């Protein structure tokens, strides 16, 4: 199911979902009565952290309790995800999950401490977004075509930083390598912020990363944009070509969503989903996200669960075909 179809379905049934959420919320035990912990499985300053803080601020205002964002980076998001999976299923500890923690890592990692399906209750998909390929301005390439040609002429010379193994930043690069017939070495970091810092400093050559945090660095001339990973150009960077314009059929769209530990009462899951939907419906929040190429979604728990399963099925063969693996 495409993001567009999800959005259309949400628009059609949003009033019913909100009503059902409110009724369930009223019937259950009072919630929340204390601060909510929002766990981000990536380093502070990255796209997951930025979106979590934006959402937490709006939810906190509506709920009347603090929504505290706490970063627990490492292992491609597995550390933070495992922490939430083992937390009390009461709705007070929730996860900002990613394509890595819930659709990729179970295939990429040989040993997983949590089950992305059985150990969580999906709450809502929050946003979807394309990535942008950025390089150090001193790298002698100015387009995707030149990057591919340079990589072929200099085998083993180039490397690419990412926000961690199993992230969309990692897998988008693996897909690019595979489709272009090149090999750009992957270097995982504990988040987008440190990865892009090293690209700017010349310790890494390039990165596939979120437009959310790369755009201001591109505009400041600290990074050079080579291409975006969506099927088409992004409104946030309209002058930057889609990779597919050079490499037909290449497409990669990342996403972020909220999940609670398995066993969290349904009324609390629905209460959280309702607050997320309200936050994303806020014009200021929606416009800010769109300005950064992040498309607000706000799905129901059932829709998000189906999306996770479809994304898992999509990326499993890509990982196996590229040979990407983490011990």
Overall structural domain count: 2
SSE sequence, one letter per element: HEHEHEHEHEHEHEHEEHHEH
CATH H level, superfamily name of the largest domain: Bordetella uptake gene, domain 1
Query: What would CATH call the architecture of the largest domain?
Result: 3-Layer(aba) Sandwich
Question: How many DSSP helices?
Answer: 11
What's the total count of β strands? 10
Helix content: 40-55%
First-to-last CA distance: 31 Å
**Strand residue percentage:** 15-25%
- Mean pLDDT comes to 89
Helix vs. strand class: alpha/beta
CATH topology of the largest domain: D-Maltodextrin-Binding Protein, domain 2
Descriptive report:
The chain is an alpha/beta fold and 327 residues long. It folds into two domains: 196 residues, Bordetella uptake gene, domain 1 (D-Maltodextrin-Binding Protein, domain 2, 3-Layer(aba) Sandwich); 116 residues, 3-Layer(aba) Sandwich (D-Maltodextrin-Binding Protein, domain 2), CATH 3.40.190.10. Strands 1, 2, 3, 4, 5, 6, 7, 8, 9 and 10 form a ten-stranded mixed beta sheet that branches. Helix 6 links the parallel strand 5 and strand 6. Helix 1 packs across helix 9, helix 2 crosses helix 9 and helix 4 runs parallel beside helix 11. The longest helix is centred in the N-terminal third of the chain and has 25 residues. The radius of gyration is 19 Å and the shape is globular. 50% of the residues are buried. The N terminus is likely disordered.
